[in-house]
Amino acid sequence: MQQTDFLVIGSGIAGLTYALKVAERFPQKKVLVITKGAADETNTKYAQGGIAVVNDLENDSFEKHIDDTLIAGDGLCNEKVVEIVVKEGPERVNDIIEWGARFDKEADGDYKRGREGGHSEFRILHHKDITGWEMERALLDAVNRQKNIEFVKHCFVIDIITQHHLGNLVTKATPDIECFGVYVLNLETNQVEKILSKITLMATGGNGQVYRTTTNPSIATGDGVSMVYRAKGRIENMEFIQFHPTALYEPGVRGQAFLITEAVRGDGGILRNKDGEAFMEKYDERKDLASRDIVARAIDSEMKRTGTEHVWLDCRHFKKESFVEHFPNIYKKCLSIGIDISKQMIPVAPAAHYSCGGIKTDEWGRSSINNLYACGECASTGLHGANRLASNSLLEGLVFAHRCAIDAAEKADQISFQSNIPDWNAAGTSQPQEMILITQSLKELQLVMSDYVGIVRNDIRLQRASRRLDLLWEETEQLYQTSTLSPQLLELRNMITVGYLIVKGASFRKESRGLHFNTDYPGKSELVQNIVL
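Predicted structure:
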């Protein structure tokens, strides 16, 4: 058993920023960061385009950024939270610059600013086409310099410890559910251990692996959302799954797809169908710079209309030197599969990218469970509403990590450790005889979610998905109760839970709004509401 003052689950931009903030505030207290893989294997690392921030008030304004965010969110943003993130954003970006993040600059020393879909101004700071990688690098370097932050790698969190584990009945209606820490599977020893904490931050990232093709790495399995739901915490708006319009299409490739950043279209890239037609003007007056929900549905429509598996992104009119300078990794990747962007168009198709819903929090990142905060993609803060504005996620991670740290700091000395937490009971379990029971169920889950709960949905598809997920859940729970735990089984269990939440939220929403488009309800409802589960 371990004890820590501050426990951080996840090592992306949200988790590391929070860890640094509380560690600097309390140099004598222990901060423990848990990650199930390598420290830098996070969704943050794969963020290409950049971070949206208003730090050029001569040519931009907070009001414009707020309006752009609200328009993209399609009526479901929390306006107070949007204002908080936009206005506190510049100071938080300065924090990570002070920690060592390097954003590209012009010859005169000012920052280069890009523009992406849904943005009315050039406000995207970037580091080439690997902005997330650069920010993750800077944060890890800063964390390694902080003596009271300890990393525990290759450690899988199984469940949040609450009153339920003390033998008390806990339901959604139970007042004052408390988080006392977590049970974890140590992947090096294969033993289940207890980590007790005064305050816990859930920063586990997204859930893109629920779908067959995603821009997310293999670790994005919705663990945090699933754990909080099992602990009877509040989850909201899970039906809003953002599909990035332009993932690189490679025949036969499944799992993580290579992302072609929005910034390519921001710099002038043009989407074309198989006939070479620039089709976006048929769908939105902003053409290729429309918000992601609109562009993804337009591409989906063109693919279905023409019977193709992808469309084309035309960059042949770019100056090759400028493209290589701004997008060196995209250029290199395309060249590796035989595409010279100066001569050939890039085949692209939508892929699951970002979850706008998640663990419901307030404006300080507090979840519905006491002493448990949530931040980053696993959280639903109210910033994104029904659709995320491009490059707002990294900003949200910085701002809410700071706010979580402020609020947690005020409570740190008022909380005591819970002393009578039972050990994990693995009696009656054994090694599963066939891994195919897990791997096949995962394939089935990803097929169901991709075919029935994708960019376009309807009631029949959702009903079919619900029935199939019920069966997968029953089979997996039986396996979970009788088998020795493994990362594969735990991830499958979490992904089935997340799939269920996405389908349930989509079934409850009898309208089309933002990222949720149901052909049985093509219009918007007059009742604007969040779906809380």
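Summary: The longest strand covers residues 191-202.
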